[in-house]
Amino acid sequence: MDIRESISKQTDVSILLAKHVVSTKAQDANLVFSPLSIHVVLGLNASGSKGPTLDQLLSFLKVKVTEEINSLSSQLVTLVFADGGSLGGPRLSFANSVWVDQSLNFKPSFKETVDNAYKAAASHCEEAFCWTCINNVSPNDEARCEDCWPNGCCSLIHCIKRRASKAKVGIAQAELPAVEATKEVNLWAEKETSGLIKEILLSGSVDGSTRLIFANAVYFKGA
User: Fold this and answer.
1) How far is the C-alpha of 192 from the C-alpha of 93, rounded, in Å?
2) What is the pLDDT of residue 145?
3) Domain 1-80 is of which CATH architecture?
4) 180 or 125, higher pLDDT
5) 70 in Cβ contact with 117 (< 8 Å)
6) Longest distance between any two alpha carbons in the chain, whole Å
7) Domain boundaries defined on the chain
8) Which residues does 99 contact at the CB level (< 8 Å), separation at least 6?
9) What is the model's pLDDT at position 25?
10) What family is reported (predicted)?
Protein backbone atom coordinates (compact mmCIF):
# COMPACT_ATOMS: atom_id res chain seq x y z
CA MET A 1 0.00 0.00 0.00
CA ASP A 2 1.15 3.55 -0.75
CA ILE A 3 2.59 5.18 2.37
CA ARG A 4 0.55 8.32 1.75
CA GLU A 5 -2.68 6.33 1.75
CA SER A 6 -1.66 4.54 4.96
CA ILE A 7 -0.84 7.82 6.69
CA SER A 8 -4.14 9.29 5.49
CA LYS A 9 -6.04 6.40 7.09
CA GLN A 10 -3.98 6.70 10.27
CA THR A 11 -4.78 10.42 10.38
CA ASP A 12 -8.51 9.69 10.06
CA VAL A 13 -8.28 7.33 13.03
CA SER A 14 -6.31 9.92 15.01
CA ILE A 15 -8.94 12.60 14.37
CA LEU A 16 -11.67 10.20 15.47
CA LEU A 17 -9.79 9.46 18.69
CA ALA A 18 -9.10 13.14 19.31
CA LYS A 19 -12.77 14.05 18.89
CA HIS A 20 -13.77 11.36 21.38
CA VAL A 21 -11.20 12.38 23.98
CA VAL A 22 -12.00 16.09 23.64
CA SER A 23 -15.74 15.52 23.97
CA THR A 24 -15.53 13.14 26.93
CA LYS A 25 -12.37 13.94 28.89
CA ALA A 26 -11.08 17.38 28.05
CA GLN A 27 -14.01 19.77 28.27
CA ASP A 28 -12.78 23.20 29.43
CA ALA A 29 -9.28 21.77 29.99
CA ASN A 30 -5.95 21.48 28.24
CA LEU A 31 -5.26 18.21 26.46
CA VAL A 32 -2.13 16.31 25.48
CA PHE A 33 -2.31 12.74 24.18
CA SER A 34 -0.79 10.55 21.47
CA PRO A 35 -3.23 9.05 18.93
CA LEU A 36 -0.31 7.32 17.22
CA SER A 37 0.49 5.44 20.42
CA ILE A 38 -3.04 4.03 20.46
CA HIS A 39 -2.83 3.21 16.76
CA VAL A 40 0.42 1.23 17.16
CA VAL A 41 -0.84 -0.68 20.20
CA LEU A 42 -4.06 -1.62 18.39
CA GLY A 43 -1.95 -2.73 15.44
CA LEU A 44 0.05 -5.04 17.69
CA ASN A 45 -3.20 -6.34 19.15
CA ALA A 46 -4.59 -6.98 15.67
CA SER A 47 -1.46 -8.92 14.72
CA GLY A 48 -2.19 -11.36 17.55
CA SER A 49 -5.93 -11.68 16.97
CA LYS A 50 -8.32 -13.49 14.66
CA GLY A 51 -12.04 -13.90 14.03
CA PRO A 52 -14.52 -11.20 15.17
CA THR A 53 -11.87 -9.48 17.30
CA LEU A 54 -9.58 -9.03 14.30
CA ASP A 55 -12.47 -7.89 12.11
CA GLN A 56 -13.45 -5.17 14.59
CA LEU A 57 -9.87 -3.94 14.98
CA LEU A 58 -9.28 -3.78 11.22
CA SER A 59 -12.56 -1.96 10.72
CA PHE A 60 -11.69 0.65 13.33
CA LEU A 61 -8.18 1.10 11.91
CA LYS A 62 -9.67 1.41 8.39
CA VAL A 63 -7.55 -1.34 6.84
CA LYS A 64 -8.34 -4.72 5.31
CA VAL A 65 -5.37 -6.80 6.48
CA THR A 66 -2.85 -6.58 9.33
CA GLU A 67 0.02 -6.30 6.85
CA GLU A 68 -1.08 -2.73 6.10
CA ILE A 69 -0.74 -1.75 9.76
CA ASN A 70 2.52 -3.61 10.23
CA SER A 71 4.08 -1.98 7.17
CA LEU A 72 3.16 1.51 8.34
CA SER A 73 4.31 0.85 11.90
CA SER A 74 7.61 -0.56 10.64
CA GLN A 75 8.35 2.63 8.72
CA LEU A 76 7.24 4.87 11.57
CA VAL A 77 9.34 3.22 14.28
CA THR A 78 12.36 3.15 11.98
CA LEU A 79 12.21 6.68 10.58
CA VAL A 80 10.14 8.79 12.95
CA PHE A 81 11.08 7.32 16.32
CA ALA A 82 14.84 7.02 15.82
CA ASP A 83 16.22 8.46 19.05
CA GLY A 84 18.74 11.21 18.34
CA GLY A 85 19.71 11.74 21.97
CA SER A 86 23.10 10.09 21.59
CA LEU A 87 23.92 12.51 18.75
CA GLY A 88 23.11 15.59 20.79
CA GLY A 89 19.64 15.98 19.31
CA PRO A 90 16.21 15.65 20.93
CA ARG A 91 15.63 12.57 23.06
CA LEU A 92 12.58 10.54 22.09
CA SER A 93 11.35 7.34 23.71
CA PHE A 94 8.32 5.50 22.33
CA ALA A 95 7.53 2.33 24.28
CA ASN A 96 4.68 -0.16 24.37
CA SER A 97 4.22 -3.11 26.70
CA VAL A 98 1.65 -5.88 27.08
CA TRP A 99 1.28 -8.40 29.90
CA VAL A 100 -0.59 -11.71 29.65
CA ASP A 101 -0.54 -14.99 31.53
CA GLN A 102 2.69 -17.00 31.54
CA SER A 103 0.84 -20.25 30.78
CA LEU A 104 0.44 -19.19 27.15
CA ASN A 105 3.39 -18.69 24.82
CA PHE A 106 3.24 -16.43 21.80
CA LYS A 107 2.78 -18.14 18.45
CA PRO A 108 5.94 -18.09 16.32
CA SER A 109 4.09 -16.12 13.64
CA PHE A 110 3.34 -13.33 16.11
CA LYS A 111 6.91 -13.20 17.34
CA GLU A 112 8.07 -13.00 13.73
CA THR A 113 5.79 -10.00 13.20
CA VAL A 114 7.24 -8.29 16.28
CA ASP A 115 10.77 -9.03 15.10
CA ASN A 116 10.35 -7.99 11.47
CA ALA A 117 7.50 -5.50 11.16
CA TYR A 118 8.26 -3.68 14.41
CA LYS A 119 12.05 -4.13 14.24
CA ALA A 120 12.03 -5.78 17.66
CA ALA A 121 15.01 -7.70 19.01
CA ALA A 122 14.27 -10.68 21.26
CA SER A 123 16.51 -10.56 24.32
CA HIS A 124 16.51 -10.87 28.09
CA CYS A 125 14.45 -8.27 29.95
CA GLU A 126 16.60 -6.58 32.57
CA GLU A 127 13.86 -6.09 35.16
CA ALA A 128 13.40 -6.79 38.87
CA PHE A 129 11.98 -10.23 38.07
CA CYS A 130 13.58 -13.19 36.32
CA TRP A 131 12.76 -13.25 32.60
CA THR A 132 13.65 -15.72 29.87
CA CYS A 133 14.13 -14.77 26.23
CA ILE A 134 11.24 -16.08 24.14
CA ASN A 135 13.81 -17.62 21.78
CA ASN A 136 14.54 -20.15 24.52
CA VAL A 137 11.04 -21.67 24.48
CA SER A 138 11.26 -25.30 23.45
CA PRO A 139 9.18 -26.61 20.49
CA ASN A 140 6.92 -28.50 22.90
CA ASP A 141 6.12 -25.24 24.70
CA GLU A 142 4.83 -23.36 21.66
CA ALA A 143 1.44 -21.63 21.77
CA ARG A 144 -1.30 -23.93 23.01
CA CYS A 145 -4.28 -22.11 21.51
CA GLU A 146 -5.32 -20.77 18.13
CA ASP A 147 -4.84 -17.13 19.07
CA CYS A 148 -1.81 -15.36 20.47
CA TRP A 149 -3.92 -13.96 23.31
CA PRO A 150 -5.41 -16.32 25.92
CA ASN A 151 -9.11 -16.55 26.73
CA GLY A 152 -8.60 -17.40 30.38
CA CYS A 153 -5.43 -15.73 31.59
CA CYS A 154 -5.50 -14.01 34.96
CA SER A 155 -2.04 -12.87 36.00
CA LEU A 156 -0.08 -10.40 33.94
CA ILE A 157 3.23 -11.92 33.08
CA HIS A 158 4.24 -11.72 29.41
CA CYS A 159 6.13 -8.64 28.40
CA ILE A 160 6.68 -7.03 25.04
CA LYS A 161 8.75 -3.93 25.38
CA ARG A 162 9.25 -1.31 22.68
CA ARG A 163 11.78 1.46 23.24
CA ALA A 164 12.39 3.70 20.24
CA SER A 165 13.19 1.17 17.48
CA LYS A 166 14.33 -1.65 19.78
CA ALA A 167 12.25 -4.10 21.80
CA LYS A 168 12.59 -6.85 24.35
CA VAL A 169 10.36 -9.91 24.46
CA GLY A 170 10.31 -12.22 27.44
CA ILE A 171 8.40 -14.68 29.56
CA ALA A 172 8.29 -14.38 33.33
CA GLN A 173 9.08 -17.44 35.38
CA ALA A 174 6.64 -16.93 38.24
CA GLU A 175 3.13 -15.54 38.63
CA LEU A 176 2.69 -12.06 40.04
CA PRO A 177 -0.32 -11.15 42.19
CA ALA A 178 -2.42 -8.17 41.16
CA VAL A 179 -0.61 -5.74 43.47
CA GLU A 180 2.80 -6.77 42.16
CA ALA A 181 1.57 -6.59 38.56
CA THR A 182 0.33 -3.05 39.16
CA LYS A 183 3.67 -2.13 40.71
CA GLU A 184 5.57 -3.66 37.80
CA VAL A 185 3.58 -1.69 35.20
CA ASN A 186 4.02 1.54 37.17
CA LEU A 187 7.78 0.98 37.49
CA TRP A 188 7.92 0.37 33.75
CA ALA A 189 6.05 3.63 33.06
CA GLU A 190 8.30 5.56 35.45
CA LYS A 191 11.43 4.22 33.77
CA GLU A 192 10.21 4.86 30.22
CA THR A 193 9.19 8.46 31.04
CA SER A 194 12.37 9.25 33.00
CA GLY A 195 10.40 9.56 36.24
CA LEU A 196 7.67 11.91 34.96
CA ILE A 197 4.84 9.36 35.25
CA LYS A 198 5.05 7.32 38.44
CA GLU A 199 1.55 5.85 38.55
CA ILE A 200 -0.15 4.87 35.31
CA LEU A 201 -2.28 2.24 37.08
CA LEU A 202 -4.12 3.21 40.26
CA SER A 203 -4.43 0.83 43.20
CA GLY A 204 -7.21 -1.65 42.47
CA SER A 205 -6.95 -1.26 38.69
CA VAL A 206 -5.76 -4.86 38.36
CA ASP A 207 -7.54 -7.84 39.92
CA GLY A 208 -8.07 -11.55 39.34
CA SER A 209 -10.43 -10.88 36.43
CA THR A 210 -7.85 -8.87 34.47
CA ARG A 211 -6.99 -10.62 31.23
CA LEU A 212 -4.61 -8.30 29.43
CA ILE A 213 -2.86 -4.97 29.92
CA PHE A 214 -1.47 -2.77 27.17
CA ALA A 215 0.69 0.13 28.33
CA ASN A 216 2.23 2.91 26.29
CA ALA A 217 4.78 5.57 27.17
CA VAL A 218 6.03 8.50 25.12
CA TYR A 219 8.90 10.65 26.38
CA PHE A 220 10.32 13.69 24.61
CA LYS A 221 13.06 16.08 25.65
CA GLY A 222 13.95 18.77 23.16
CA ALA A 223 17.11 20.08 24.79
Assistant:
1) 7
2) 30
3) 2-Layer Sandwich (3.30)
4) 180
5) yes
6) 56
7) 1-80, 84-223
8) 156, 157, 158, 159, 181, 184, 185, 212, 213, 215
9) 76
10) Belongs to the serpin family.
Across the chain, the runs of DSSP E, i.e. the strands, are: 91-99, 131-133, 159-163, 166-172, 213-221
Supply the pLDDT for residue 192.
83
Q: Cα separation of 176 and 193, whole Å?
A: 23
The arithmetic mean of pLDDT across residues 56-75, rounded, is 88
How much is the pLDDT for 101? 60
Fold of 84-223: Antithrombin; Chain I, domain 2 (3.30.497)
Q: Is the pLDDT of residue 186 over 70?
A: yes
- Report how far residue 54's alpha carbon sits from residue 50's, in angstroms, rounded to the nearest whole number: 5
Q: What angle do CA 176, 213, 141 make, to 5 degrees?
A: 65
CA atoms 81, 217, 61, 169: torsion sign = positive
pLDDT in tens, 154-166: 223 333 333 333 3
Give the per-residue pLDDT at 82: 58
CA dihedral 76, 80, 81, 87 (to 10 degrees): 150
Query: In angstroms, what CA-CA distances link 163 with 124, 160, 177?
Result: 14, 10, 26
Q: What is the chain's mean pLDDT, rounded?
A: 68
